[in-house]
User: Fold CBS domain-containing protein from Ramlibacter montanisoli.
Amino acid sequence: MKVSDILRVKGNTLYTVGPGEPLARAIDIMAEKDIGSLVVMEHGDLVGMLTFREVIQCIVANQHIVGQTVVRTAMDDHPLTCTMETELDEVRRMMLERHARYMPVMDKRMLMGVISFYDVAKAVVDSQNFENRMLKAYIRDWPASEDSQPTASL
Assistant:
């Protein structure tokens, strides 16, 4: 399974913010849309990711005051990315190594979507459920052979 399979099911609705925008506005968007991340874009290029983790770290560092802080101050300016062709096992490995919960999906310099660790976990569970159903159906429909007649024991 590839990242493209997840985005095909999930859709590609994206929420972005500029690095110079107020952090308070970004927090409002995240709360309003009930999302855990925003892609930070500048002049059409991905320049960072803002997740609830970065927001909390920034707020704590500023003694619990958002004030005039801008997104650039809080964002991860070197986010982990993948492509549409990246295999799901590789995405899981990358996300686990970096403790990343969100990953932008890129096609060269074009942002195609964002996948979350939840999306990855759901895809794995759905795939395993499908495989289990197929195996159970195969076992249930197992052809009886003529050789498998019970023998009497003495």
